[in-house]
């Protein structure tokens, strides 16, 4: 295993895939800022990871501009740069509300506020710190559920998941942001990618996932530690490229 003295921020890292991502980055020697909206849960999670490396709680609610600004200043003061930004925080609402034709707009707005606007707000706030790093990496947690090519495939594989329109379209937007940022940053060392972590047993799906979130975290860490000749503006999972 290689060790590094780099710094990473993982949003929504008090549990699930974010927690396991924080653990794996800490084990590689990263100083990990463990973002959590609740101080009690965040401090407890950072304590749980203390044996894995240098893990520090930072209060961060991705829907709250003041919280994001305070976290940015906190990390800028202590770390100076940010080598890796993992936009992991996410929610899935409206499973009982059916498809697009019946889903309440309020459900869609709430989902977008965390999954898409949260990712956008955090990225905009932290990009100046990522640009200061030698080889910045931004990883956006997307999902194959947000893949338009899968949605429109003749066999419609997404239908088998009991498609949640709000969640799926929020992830489509996340992937769109990945593409736009990658183009904007193409002449810089910063790489921006979307990943799908597979189907993990977490609170988000009532622990129905088929793999432990430590498995899902592996592809996130892979994207966070891409070499200089690695891709940017890509969407991939553990098996390779995912259709946009
Ligand atoms: N699980 C899967 O199979 C799967 C598949 C594809 C993609 N993903 C994506 O992977 C990411 C992690 O999901 P997960 O399965 O690990 O879910 P999870 O266990 O429910 O964790 C979600 C995390 O996001 C945090 N969060 C929610 N709203 C937030 C906000 N406003 N500000 C900051 N943090 C917030 C949660 O914090 P609280 O504890 O405070 O609620 C929690 O730490 C999500 O983006 C999800 O869409 C998951």
Automatic annotation (TrEMBL):
Keywords (A to Z) from UniProt: NADP, Oxidoreductase
Keyword NADP in record: yes
GO molecular function: oxidoreductase activity, acting on the CH-OH group of donors, NAD or NADP as acceptor
Pfam families per the UniProt record, alphabetical: adh_short (PF00106)
Keyword hit for NADP: yes
Record-stated family: Belongs to the short-chain dehydrogenases/reductases (SDR) family.
PANTHER family per UniProt: (+)-NEOMENTHOL DEHYDROGENASE (PTHR43490), SHORT-CHAIN DEHYDROGENASE_REDUCTASE (PTHR43490:SF99)
Protein's recorded name: SDR family oxidoreductase
Lineage: Bacteria, Bacillati, Actinomycetota, Actinomycetes, Kineosporiales
């Amino acid at each position: 295993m290689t060790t590094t003295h780099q710094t990473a921020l993982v949003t929504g890292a008090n549990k699930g895939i974010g927690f396991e991502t924080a653990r794996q980055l800490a084990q590689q020697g990263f100083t990990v800022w463990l973002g959590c909206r609740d101080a009690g849960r965040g401090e407890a999670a950072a304590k749980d990871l203390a044996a894995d490396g240098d893990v520090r709680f930072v209060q961060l609610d991705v829907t709250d501009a003041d919280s994001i600004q305070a976290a940015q200043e906190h990390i800028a003061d202590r770390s100076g740069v940010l080598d890796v930004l993992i936009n992991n925080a996410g929610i899935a609402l409206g499973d009982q509300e059916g498809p697009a034709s019946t889903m309440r707009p309020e459900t869609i707005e709430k989902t977008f506020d965390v999954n898409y606007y949260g990712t956008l707000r955090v990225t905009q706030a932290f990009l100046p710190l990522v640009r200061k790093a030698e080889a910045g990496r931004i990883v956006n947690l997307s999902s194959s559920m947000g893949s338009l090519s899968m949605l429109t495939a003749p066999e419609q594989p997404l239908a088998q998941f009991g498609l949640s329109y709000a969640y799926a379209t929020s992830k489509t937007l996340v992937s769109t942001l990945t593409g736009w940022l990658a183009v904007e940053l193409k002449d810089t060392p910063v790489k921006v990618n979307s990943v799908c972590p597979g189907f993990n047993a977490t609170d988000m799906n009532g622990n129905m996932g088929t793999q432990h979130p430590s498995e899902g975290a592996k592809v996130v860490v892979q994207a966070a530690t891409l070499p200089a000749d690695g891709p940017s503006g890509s969407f991939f999972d553990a098996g390779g490229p995912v259709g946009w």
